[in-house]
Design brief:
mainly beta; Immunoglobulin-like; six-stranded mixed sheet; five-stranded antiparallel sheet
């Protein structure tokens, strides 16, 4: 939400769990008025989608059932600070308030999906007696630290925190190496795919994909697969495989806010796919789990 009368500055630009955040809020009124108090609030809200079967009611009674999609909303954190008591505001005269917040040590981190979301906001509000309150709301991001994932706070799968993991697919055993692990979605990463096949395979392409599997864990909850990065190892009609070979790759930062996360009504986990796309045959998928962070500072 934007309002030219307001300015809200938050430092650091990305908030870190367990660290302090500073905020400065300025307000320039366009009319004289009084207030009872001024507050600044750091707030976290989870949103999740789920389906429910509901009766179709007509004038003649219930005629059937239908599936209705709902959006659940739950406030997960609310840190409020009163920065001023009763105040007189004069038209055109700016006032500024500053305060700090201790970001909760376990977040949760920001997550931007369709089926599942976790949003943080910084809100400044002037409580006006007998009238509509004045206020502004600004979105802020809370990161998922690599250190928190390495500490095992989340179950990220058997090999989610290993740099190298086996990915066996029928008669084509392979290894996928990723560096660093966890992967930070705000920074580049690298890796390699090592595979041996009985003979070279004619592929349309060899595609690399970093995906996020998000699911809402309530009855009727939606699921979503988000592809946050794509790359490739082989061009169309190229023979791939044969003798044991390591194929290295480099990846730019996806910049996504879709880390590994557990929320009260959902969760998200990362997967890395190596896909051998074949003509007139099912593609061969090599898949391994991987932990996903959104900051390498911690």
């Amino acid at each position: 939400m934007s309002d030219e009368r307001w300015s809200v500055k938050v430092e650091p630009a990305v908030l870190l769990p367990g660290r302090q955040a500073s905020v400065a809020a300025s307000y320039t009124p366009d009319h004289d008025h009084e207030s009872r108090r001024v507050t600044i609030t750091l707030r976290c809200v989870e949103r999740y989608r789920y389906d429910r079967r509901e009766p179709i009611v007509t004038g003649k009674g219930v005629s059937g059932v239908r599936t209705v999609t709902h959006t659940g909303v739950e406030e997960l954190a609310r840190l409020e600070v009163e920065v001023a008591g009763p105040t007189h505001f004069t038209t055109g005269e700016s006032q500024t308030w500053r305060t700090t917040f201790d970001v909760p040590g376990l977040g949760p981190a920001s997550f931007e999906g369709e089926a599942l979301r976790c949003d943080w906001t910084m809100e400044a509000k002037i409580d006006v007696a007998m009238s509509i309150d004045e206020g502004v709301e600004r979105a802020v991001a809370v990161a998922q630290p690599m250190a928190l994932l390495r500490a095992g706070v989340l179950d990220t799968g058997m090999y989610g925190l290993f740099e190298e993991a086996p990915v066996n697919q029928d008669a084509h055993p392979a290894q996928v190496r990723l560096e660093p692990v966890p992967i930070c979605l705000q920074a580049p990463f690298a890796g390699s795919f090592t595979v041996e096949t009985a003979k070279p395979i004619a592929v349309q392409e060899v595609r690399l994909e970093l995906r996020v599997q998000a699911e809402v864990t309530v009855p009727g909850g939606h699921r979503e697969e988000i592809t946050v990065w794509r790359g490739g190892l082989a061009a169309a009609s190229q023979a791939f495989g044969g003798s044991l070979t390591e194929h290295a790759f480099q990846a730019e930062a996806p910049g996504a806010w879709t880390p590994s996360i557990d929320l009260p009504h959902g969760r998200a986990r990362g997967q890395f796919h190596v896909i051998l796309a074949l003509a007139w045959e099912p593609d061969i998928h090599y898949v391994r789990d991987v932990a996903l962070a959104t900051t390498s500072e911690l």
